[in-house]
Structures are given as C-alpha cells and as structure tokens.
Amino acid sequence: MTVNSTAKERLASVSKIKAYARIGKDVSFPLDKVFALGKVSRTVEAVDRAVVQLNTQDDFLKNALFWFYTLTPEQEKAYQCIEAGNLKDAQKIYEKAKDFGSLIGLATLAFVNTNINQAIGYINTFFEDETAFNAFKDFVSQITRQETNLTVEDLLTLYLETLLENVRVSKLLKAYSSFKKSSEISKLSLEIVNRKNAETLTKDFKKTIAEKVEEIDKNPGYALKKCPEFIKVSKENLRFIAKSAGTNSVPYKDASDSLADYIIQVVSSYDRVTDYISPSDAKKEHDILRKAKALAYSTHLQNHIDDLLGQFVGIPF
Length: 317
Fold this sequence. Notes:
Elements: H1 7-22, H2 30-34, H3 44-53, H4 57-64, H5 73-83, H6 87-97, H7 100-112, H8 116-128, H9 130-144, H10 152-164, H11 169-177, H12 184-218, H13 220-245, H14 250-268, H15 279-283, H16 288-295, H17 305-309
C-alpha cells in the first residue's frame, strides 16, 4: 500500500493478511522481493499493531516520511516501476516531478540503497521547499482529519528520531557534517542529532550510575575506594555529552547532577571519611558531603571534580 491508500484499500489488505495468518499461510507483496525484506512478520497481532499506529497523527507522520505516494500520474508510474523492480526508472520520474511525494520517494529509495548522504540531500530539499512542505502538511491534515500545526523543526525532529531508530548515530552525524555548510536545514538537523545523541548518552550514563548506587549498599567501603576511578571515567562521558549538546544543556546538567548524587551517596555511606576533612572545613561545616551537594548544582561539574578527588588523598584502605 502507498501512503495515500484509501481506508477501503487498507481494510481489504488487512483482511487478506489476517485471513492468511489465521490458517498459517504467508502472504507476500511485490515490494518484499524488490527490497529483499526477507520474511516479514504478518501475524494477526503484528497487523493489529500496525493498524493502531496509523490511527495517530505522529505515527502516521513517521510512515508518511518514509514511504511512497501515488497522488499524481507521475508518482503512480514511478510506483509501478518500483513494484516491477525498476528502481532507476522510478528515480528518473521522481527527479523530474520534485513535489513532496516525489522527494520523499527519492529519499526512501536512497535509504533502501543505503545511500545516507543522497537520502539526506533529497529530504533537505523537501524541508527547504516551502511549497512542498505546506502541501505535505495539508495532505496529512486531510488524511488524519486533524489540523497539522507542526513547524519545520517539529517535523524534522520527528523525522530524525525515526531515522535514529534504524541508523547509527555516528553514521548520521558523519553524513550531516558533510552538509552543515550547505543549508540551514542541514545545520538544524545536525543540532537535533547532536541533542538526541546527548540524550541517549545521558540515559546510558544514568543507568550506569544507578547500577553503581546499588553497589553502595552492598559494600560501602569498596564503593568509596572505587569512587575516584569511576569519577575519572565519568568525566570522559561528561565531555562527550558536553561536546554534543554543550555544558548549558539539559542532558549535560542531568548527567552532572546524576554523578554528583552518586558521589553524595558514596561519601554519606562511609562515616570514616569525615576523619579526613581539614579542621577548618569541619569548623565551617563545609564537609565533603556539602561540597558534593554544591557540585550537584554546578553546570561545570567536570571542571571541579578534582577538588572533590583531593579529599580522598591519604585515606587508607
């Protein structure tokens, strides 16, 4: 089915797939072989999930940005070429039309051929073409029966989030880096990918922190002994996050806070550490725990970690 297939066509296709699935038979479609998709899961449950996804605008948009259209005679002809396996002929037809359906079709063909840079070039043209972009929004509103108020950045973010589910972030960063000087859309795309990369790094970092926190209850002395080593490794993680999103970004602050909370829990779990605080700090009640808490609110925590590490010097284990 194409993106603009009718409700009646979708129902007929869904009914056919379910009928075959219930009797344990596989059903195939022309594009299965063209794109070498292999065995596609078309169980009743899988079909039901797919149908639900098409009922929300966001999920429909994800599909609409990565598939084919037959809104015009040219697009219809191109799609027939695709079904017949004549991808080069389809590409030629799309390149002459250059409406939103053709541009998205070109990007989809490029992804099928694993040509990420070419796909980015076509999708950039789509986002940069105000007429094509607005026509796409009107189409989505008509199909979903919901007004589409998404901005270019909103839709570009949704597009890139979907792309990141299937393409390694390192590969995508490299591809967009080659385009960053050519257009504002490329620059914005690179910013979004970097931000998403920082969010992923932060999520993984916080997961590691949570695992380290669990170790504290089991053996606080060992946790304190390993704390400086782990902090040094964590500083590298923070640098990567800062490189992607900046030190004033939410992911960086979130990761910094998470590391500081870990330090607080390690230090507070081991009473003996208070024996090694300088008398002047002890009198002012600025002990190591208070210092760690202060670090938790620093957006430049990585620049001050060494101050905290200095408190561990000379502790016998």
